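Practice problem 4.
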């Protein structure tokens, strides 16, 4: 295994508060980052905020704020997810950072030098929710399927364009050489079909007099960069490009986590831009689905999102992490149900894991048992394999089978009726299994794992602690 990994989420727009959909993406990335670290791999884990574009400009005007002040306020909210969800990211980039804007201008210059930027007049159908041009075939009853409450706008102006049409064959060759470049497979087939159908050059600037909130186009004060062109550059500016080539070479290429509405931008547009600038493509694109709320589509633009901070305040960080990693399929759409959340909390966390720890801790404390040397790492190879294959849900399923088996062993053998050597042997075996469970839980439920290992893996007497997951009323 390569001794370094670069992971990144997409950068969420700061046009609304953080929601559960982005929490899913960043918790999935965090789980993988923590796993790699336990494997002795150095990790650069990037996230941040996308702060330019028409959506944000209009939101700032609505709030009667300067766009930068508006962005500052919302960027701080996203950065607070680090504590709320116990995230281990090592870099938080903002697209309004001076170094990022310098990188975006240099990237523009390289694409321009390669002959891939030109000026032309355009008349397009535009979804401000996606910040993307839409063709008639992509619309449903004249509306964007991702933002059905936002009217399609007609834009007429002269802009700079990126020569996307030039990269059909290079992209298809990239996909052919990298059969797992996009996961899941059906999304890879979708983007290959899109590229094979022919590529259309896309606009990469906006007139500053109409939309001043963006990175200035080099050499043309009348234009600012289109938000997608600017924002995608964050993946390389975050690791020092172009001013620190040594740092860039150390970390690149990147594994990107992205939602399915980002498929085209991340796996085709961005890769073509990298090729134009003379840079290697990304390593892999991992596409997750959307989260519905009790069966209804959840979207910032629809105003029915679930606030992850509220869930954490009510149930705790690891309970939220558990639901996202266990219940939501990594590559497909999933549903958040408050009823299902409570069921899982009660059955798996409180009655399953929590009850196991409490029962064994009480028996050990009463017996005065001291355990041997501390263990480290993740001891189960099959669980490691599932994490490497981006299946945290299957890894957790296997861990909970261990928990259920140990609870069954306790119920069957009734250690509270044992004494002497038989009791000691039983508890040593139980405690050893609990330590292995705690070690396996580290990438998923880090706070819970730490509490378990502190109780059972510290070469001292086990003491009864507060319940890991108090039962719900």
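Answer key:
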């Amino acid at each position: 295994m390569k001794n370094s990994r670069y992971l990144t989420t997409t950068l969420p727009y700061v046009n609304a508060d953080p929601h559960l959909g982005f929490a899913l993406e960043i918790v999935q990335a965090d789980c993988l980052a923590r796993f790699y670290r336990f494997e002795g791999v150095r990790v650069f884990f990037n996230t941040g905020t996308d702060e330019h574009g028409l959506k944000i400009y209009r939101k700032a005007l609505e709030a009667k704020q300067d766009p930068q002040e508006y962005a500052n306020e919302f960027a701080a909210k996203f950065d607070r997810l680090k504590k709320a969800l116990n995230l281990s990211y090592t870099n938080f980039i903002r697209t309004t950072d001076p170094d990022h804007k310098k990188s975006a201008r240099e990237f523009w210059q390289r694409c321009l030098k390669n002959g891939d930027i030109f000026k032309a007049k355009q008349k397009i159908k535009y979804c401000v929710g996606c910040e993307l041009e839409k063709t008639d075939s992509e619309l449903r009853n004249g509306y964007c399927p991702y933002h059905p409450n936002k009217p399609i706008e007609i834009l007429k102006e002269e802009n700079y364009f990126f020569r996307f049409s030039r990269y059909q064959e290079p992209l298809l060759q990239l996909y052919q050489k990298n059969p797992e470049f996009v996961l899941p497979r059906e999304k890879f087939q979708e983007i290959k079909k899109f590229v094979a159908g022919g590529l259309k050059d896309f606009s990469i600037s906006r007139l500053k007099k109409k939309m001043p909130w963006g990175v200035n186009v080099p050499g043309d004060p009348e234009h600012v960069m289109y938000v997608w062109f600017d924002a995608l550059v964050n993946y390389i500016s975050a690791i020092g490009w172009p001013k620190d080539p040594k740092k860039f070479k150390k970390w690149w290429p990147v594994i990107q986590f992205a939602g399915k509405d980002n498929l085209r931008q991340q796996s085709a547009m961005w890769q073509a831009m990298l090729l134009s600038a003379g840079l290697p493509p990304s390593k892999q694109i991992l596409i997750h689905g959307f989260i519905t709320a009790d069966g209804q589509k959840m979207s910032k633009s629809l105003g029915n999102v679930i606030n992850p901070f509220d869930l954490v305040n009510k149930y705790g960080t690891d309970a939220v992490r558990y639901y996202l990693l266990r219940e939501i399929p990594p590559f497909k759409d999933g549903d958040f149900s408050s009823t299902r959340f409570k069921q899982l909390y009660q059955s798996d966390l409180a009655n399953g894991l929590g009850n196991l720890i409490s029962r064994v801790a009480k028996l050990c404390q009463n017996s005065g048992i001291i355990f041997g040397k501390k263990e480290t790492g993740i001891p189960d190879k099959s669980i490691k394999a599932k994490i490497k294959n981006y299946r945290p849900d299957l890894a957790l399923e296997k861990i909970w089978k261990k928990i259920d088996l140990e609870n069954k062993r306790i119920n069957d053998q009734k250690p509270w009726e044992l004494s002497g050597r038989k009791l000691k042997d039983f508890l040593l075996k139980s405690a050893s299994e609990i330590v292995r469970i705690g070690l396996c839980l580290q990438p998923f439920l880090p706070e819970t794992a730490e509490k378990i290992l502190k109780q059972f893996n510290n070469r001292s007497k086990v003491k009864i602690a507060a319940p890991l997951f108090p039962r719900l009323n």
